[in-house]
Design a protein that fits this description.
Layout (H helix, E strand, L loop, with lengths): L1 H29 L8 E7 L6 H20 L8 E7 L4 H13 L4 E3 L3 H14 L2 E3 L16 E2 L5 H14 L9 E6 L3 H4 L2 H10 L3 E2 L3 E2 L8 H8 L5 E4 L3 H13 L5 E4 L6 H7 L7 E5 L11 H11 L7 H19 L5 H8 L26 E7 L5 E8 L10
Parallel strand pairs: 1-2, 1-3, 3-4, 4-5, 6-7, 6-8, 6-9, 9-10, 10-11
Antiparallel strand pairs: 11-12, 12-13
Length: 405
């Protein structure tokens, strides 16, 4: 009797153990694996402030690029999460937003303006946050001073120098050198490149007239242009954004000025034709470090496909291309990074050499001593038919003394 009890007890134990094991195996089979947390990217954009005329399309391009990255493998098997916030081009709001992201341990950000990026550069350095801005300010490209700041467009300093060289190379009056003035908003974006432009203009023998300050939110510029007319410049540099640039060009036409205008990257895009109309014809020239929307280059294909998939009834301009390019360069570095943190992504960016953006920009190279992505761009003009046509390509020598200027 004892034997039967003993044997029966073991049978019960065996059945119980088998059942537990089976249930455990089934449980393991059914329990889903916990998805890896997405990599958060801080986003600072202007979609309601004085640069929102170019900022809205830029922000949309960044959001769509994030979706494209996730649809194409993400980063090391993880999705990215772009946290896109509008700071309305206000420096205090930008600083507060940056600190919020930093305190969430976000180590890489897509930023916007010159004033705010410069206001935060000390924090960026101390916090070792990779900060890829839409400001191509030359004060941000010297890694001995700003080691964690990057951008993908030709610097404002190189852009304004390329403009001066273009004017000089195409000047045909042998009796004198051109008369030049500089028009810009009272803001770091407008002011910072001016010393570089003036220095080269004067070294080329240009006569430089009085500066004219025109706000980014200007509705008219007749007083500034009337004052400028006294000097009667052959050329004027405009360092504004597209809406204010259109105001200047339209008022110049109304006043009968013969001045030609050569325009920084943020003031020359497809919307300029809509805003300035025929006043821009044979009068407006623009610095173009990026392919225009829809250009026939390989890098444009995924951009157009994403646009058609997400919002086919919208229209876009080069601003969308600019942010897309910044996101693609960020993605490449994150994939290459040995560690997914600020120092790791910074080191990966500094290994990029002649990185091919598919024709969206000139090839991009960063080093540990030079964060200028390239020194090349195209120069466009608005022709007599109101079309933007490229007239030349410009590549400046990568002079060490121009680093940070």
């Amino acid at each position: 009797m004892r034997k039967r009890v003993f044997k029966s007890t073991w049978i019960v134990y065996a059945v119980a153990i088998t059942t537990i094991v089976a249930l455990g195996v089934l449980g393991c089979a059914k329990a889903p694996e916990k998805a890896a947390e997405p990599i958060k990217i801080g986003g600072l954009f202007d979609t309601s402030g004085p640069t929102s005329g170019v900022g809205k399309d830029y922000a949309q391009g960044a959001v769509d690029a994030a979706d494209y990255i996730n649809a194409n493998g993400g980063v090391k098997g993880r999705n990215i999460e772009l946290i896109a916030n509008d700071y309305a081009y206000k420096v205090p709001e930008a600083v507060a937003l940056y600190k919020t992201y930093r305190d969430q341990d976000i180590f890489i950000m897509q930023g916007w303006g010159t004033g705010d990026t410069n206001a935060m550069k000390q924090f960026i350095t101390e916090d070792k946050v990779v900060y890829m801005s839409a400001s191509y300010d030359s004060l941000l490209n010297d890694p001995s001073k700003t080691p964690f700041n990057f951008y993908v467009g030709t610097s404002y300093g190189d852009g304004i120098r390329a403009a001066m060289l273009f004017i000089n190379d195409n000047w045909t009056d042998s009796s004198r050198k051109p008369r030049m003035v500089f028009i810009y908003p009272d803001h770091p974006y407008g002011k910072n490149p001016i010393p570089s432009g003036k220095a080269l203009a004067k070294s080329l023998g240009f006569s430089v007239g009085p500066d004219q300050v025109v706000s980014l939110s200007a509705k008219e510029a007749t007083s500034q242009l009337t004052n400028m007319k006294k000097f009667n410049p052959d050329w004027a540099w405009i360092g504004g954004t597209t809406p204010s640039t259109a105001v200047i060009i339209k008022d110049a036409a109304k006043l009968g000025l013969g001045t030609k205008f050569i325009i920084n990257v943020w003031g020359f895009d497809e919307n300029l034709l809509k805003l300035a109309g025929a006043a821009a014809n044979e009068r407006a020239y623009g610095m173009a470090p990026f392919a225009m929307w829809g250009d026939d280059v390989p890098g444009m294909k995924p951009i157009v496909e994403m646009h058609e998939k997400k919002h086919p009834n919208d229209s876009h301009v080069v601003r969308y291309v600019q942010s897309w390019t910044s996101m693609m360069v960020m993605w490449e570095a994150m994939k290459k990074a040995e560690t997914l943190d600020g120092p790791g992504v910074k080191a990966a960016l500094e290994t990029l050499k002649d990185y091919d953006t598919g024709g969206l920009t000139a090839p991009i190279t960063y080093t540990s001593t030079d964060h200028r992505p390239n020194t090349s761009l195209k120069i466009y003009k608005v022709d007599s038919q109101g079309k933007q046509v490229p007239v030349t390509s410009a590549t400046l020598e990568r002079k060490p003394e121009w680093l940070g200027q």
